[in-house]
């Protein structure tokens, strides 16, 4: 029986498969400092791609209004400058507390839904008020938090009350 061979960049011939071809040609690098702020247990994958794409839309009045609603539920400082908000979120990367999880989920969901709102306004001429959009963000994060298994503590009880998880 014939077999197709794949010679990777390392010069070693292997039996061909898509995964071996991909692994041999994909660029590799060390882990970046913000990796854990993006990929963490309980993250929402569709919120990841827009998370660190700097956008002037994030700095407009509408986005500021949406972000102000989100700040009420996080330990992120009240900065509206992109680099400061991203830096605060990266600061939570190794923190496994419930408050850290809420901050990372809210940050990702806020960026994702602001970008979605931008596209809706540009391509569909549909607009939502900032408070209405935050309602969507809050519901998304709340539903995600309902699926998380937390260790019981006073902090978790406070989180459940604040986010209406009970």
Task: List its traits.
two-stranded antiparallel ribbon, extended, 2 strands, 166 residues, mainly alpha
Molecular structure report:
The chain is mainly alpha-helical and 166 residues long. The protein has two domains: 30 residues, no CATH class; 132 residues, no CATH class. 52% of the residues lie in helices and 4% in strands. It has a two-stranded antiparallel ribbon. Helix 3 runs antiparallel to helix 5 and helix 5 crosses helix 6. It is extended. It starts with a strand and ends with a helix.
Please outline the helices and strands.
Elements: E1 5-7, E2 13-15, H1 18-25, H2 35-38, H3 61-71, H4 82-91, H5 98-124, H6 130-146, H7 154-162
Antiparallel strand pairs: 1-2
Helix pairs in contact: 3-5, 3-6, 5-6
Task: Assign a percent range to the helix content.
Answer: 40-55%
Strand order of the largest sheet: 1-2
Strand residues, percent: under 5%
- Mean pLDDT score: 78
Tally of distinct domains: 2
Shape: extended
> What's the total helix number?
7
The H-and-E topology, N to C, reads as: EEHHHHHHH
Main beta-sheet strand count, sense and barrel state: 2 strands, antiparallel
Enumerate the spans where pLDDT stays under 50 for 5 or more consecutive residues: none
Radius of gyration, in angstroms, nearest whole number: 20 Å
Q: Which assembly state applies to the chains in this document?
A: single chain
* Structure summary, number of beta strands: 2
How far is the first residue's CA from the last residue's CA?
A: 62 Å
SS class: mainly alpha
